[in-house]
Amino acid sequence: MSETVIGIPQSFADAKINAERYADMYARSINEPDAFWADEAKRLDWYKEPTKISDVSFAKDDLHIRWFEDGELNVSYNCIDRHLPERAGKVALIWEGDNPAFHHSITYAQLHNHVCRFANELKKIGVKKGDRVTLYMPMIPEAAYAMLACTRIGAVHSVVFGGFSPDALAGRINDCQSEFVVTADQGVRGNKGVPLKANVDKALEQAPDVKAVLCIRHTGAQVPWVEGRDFWHHDLALEVDAKCEPEPMKAEDPLFILYTSGSTGKPKGVLHTTGGYLVWASMTHEYTFDHREDDVFWCTADVGWVTGHTYIVYGPLANGATSLMYEGVPTWPGPDRCWRIVAKHKVTTIYTAPTAIRALMREGDEPVSKHDRSSLRLLGSVGEPINPEAWRWYHEVVGDKRCPIVDTWWQTETGGHLITPLPGAHELKPGSASFPMFGVQPALVDTEGNLLPDEGAQEGNLVLLGSWPGQMRTVYGDHQRFVETYFSTYENMYFTGDGARRDADGYWWITGRVDDVLNVSGHRLGTAEIESALVAHELVAEAAVVGYPHDLKGQGIYCYVTLVAGLEPTEETEKTLKAHVRQEIGPVATPDVIQFSPGLPKTRSGKIMRRILRKIAEGEYDKLGDISTLADPGVVEDLIEGHKIST
Ligand code: WT7
């Protein structure tokens, strides 16, 4: 069967980046990186233009990553103030509520007013430059105001996804010694309330250093209140000035922390800095989405994830774009909600995740085709490999075969897109993330760390040979962990944790994580985190967690659990443990399957052989490989017997 290749549509003939331009710019970004990045830095307004462009070493014992080091700028100025002369009346944010009757638009002038006030409110509760502020927010414009307000005064935000539990929130508050929390009374998703303020109060029982909580009234629900510690945003807004000068920041000053899961231990605080991140966010938003002035850009991610940071807030606003923020879920109140939104707001670009595409695809074509989608010109995918069926449906049904799909590969750590097609430059192969962004040097290594030849078809572990401005700078509070996680597996290279192949035409295909990180409905989870939640329960002696292929979620969570001696598992035990993990981490981490097993496959030195557990979870009993090194090969048969097909 010949491979599908989809050509560049006529509508992208005048795209900013065509094939020739891509080739020229890519070559220059590699051959004369400092000249290239000095030019790209001009897309921002600097108080002091950078003259030192890059200073990078990936060497384990001298790791440092610095971009635009002597430059000075302010992120909120770049996302708001500088647009005011030309775009004061242009819509910056379109907010679409969970309830379809609720929506409003915020112009750049209004955004300026909101963010300045919010910044002054933060100052009023005691926030100073360099302080960490934890945001635990629903998808409402105030989430963006709060983020931008932090950047305006040089505070460092740490947004914690509103679906995380009080325990998870407390851990993230304490890890970065955050003394301030911004939240709302409640969030709303699919007409159900999410008790954000109540969760914050629970979290603060374990985070005693928090001095102040700023709360947005969103639904008007009754919430617990601690006088002296808690402040209503609408009260403070009346007390503060509408003017707030942006604070000039050094390019390498911290901008935000965002927690993400790794293969070991608790979540890491990924730290991004000011100048490099914003250049990257702005550049990738412009080129990947071929941004045009009258676009209506809809990224469906939550602001609690990096996709929401870079492609709802910073990238689009740095470019003076109109960004749509949707509060609710894709299928409420009906299966056609997304397409209703597209028609209502004349969305030009949708950027969403394969898991959402698969869920919408299950609803059939009719909910899509009954709405006018003529405004759409480009579709994007992010978060996990997109399977060919989902790709085709997205392309043919949603995009009427008119709209290219940009399948963007990147990570929380990378700040923005690293491998992606550019719609005017590249023909598309469904399922391929295609080509590297400017300045990005992907390569493949074998398990010994040998670089594979950079021509012809190859498959291996994906590494990056050099830095790019949007790269994370450290793990907050634990630089050694940064070195160990990303720069110690292979010398002088950044290890992504992903496997990949490059085909004979040079197209990149991401094959998925090669470490113990799961990707469940586009949410990243460490198996170690789920295991430690399980073993924290008094009934559990030991646990091992692996992923298995799941039709809708991409990967499901499969847990092998050994109960403490003498206990017999019941249905109740299973329910209890699922609820326990959900409570410790959050609903996204709820196990799909729990298999009770009296023993786990261990080597004689006591190491659990996950490879075997993965194969059993996948039902591939004949591919277990060598089991002779197990201390007790007998456990394998028991495990196979107990294997549960997920429901
Ligand atoms: C991991 C990063 C990127 C922002 C959202 C997720 C997987 C991401 C793709 C893609 C195949 C992808 C990788 C990566 N991933 N995009 N287009 N094709 N896999 O960010 O939570 O930091 O997760 O998501 O495995 O390492 P994240």
Distance between the termini: 34 Å
Task: Report the principal-axis shape.
Answer: globular
User: Residue ranges: pLDDT <50 for 5 or more in a row?
Assistant: none
The biggest beta sheet reads:
8 strands, mixed
Describe this structure in words.
The protein is α/β, with parallel strands linked by helices and 647 residues long. Helices cover 30% and strands 23% of the residues. It is built from 20 helices and 30 strands. An eight-stranded mixed β-sheet has the order 12-11-8-6-7-14-15-23, sandwiched between helices. Helix 6 (141-153) links the parallel strand 6 and strand 7. The site of 5'-O-[(S)-butoxy(hydroxy)phosphoryl]adenosine has 23 residues, from helix 11, strand 20, strand 24 and strand 25.
Task: Throw out a few tags for this protein.
647 residues; alpha/beta; eight-stranded mixed beta sheet; seven-stranded mixed beta sheet; 20 helices; binds 5'-O-[(S)-butoxy(hydroxy)phosphoryl]adenosine
Show the helix and strand layout.
Elements: H1 19-31, H2 33-41, E1 54-57, E2 64-67, E3 72-73, H3 75-79, H4 84-87, E4 91-96, E5 103-107, H5 108-124, E6 132-136, H6 141-153, E7 156-159, H7 166-175, E8 180-184, E9 187-189, E10 192-194, H8 196-204, E11 212-216, E12 230-232, H9 233-239, E13 249-250, E14 254-260, E15 268-273, H10 274-288, E16 296-299, H11 306-318, E17 322-326, H12 337-345, E18 349-352, H13 354-361, H14 366-369, E19 378-382, H15 388-398, E20 405-408, E21 442-445, E22 458-464, E23 474-475, H16 479-487, E24 494-502, E25 508-513, E26 517-520, E27 523-526, H17 527-535, E28 540-550, E29 554-563, H18 571-584, E30 593-596, H19 610-618, H20 634-642
Helix pairs in contact: 1-2, 5-6, 5-9, 7-8, 10-11, 13-15
The chain binds 5'-O-[(S)-butoxy(hydroxy)phosphoryl]adenosine.
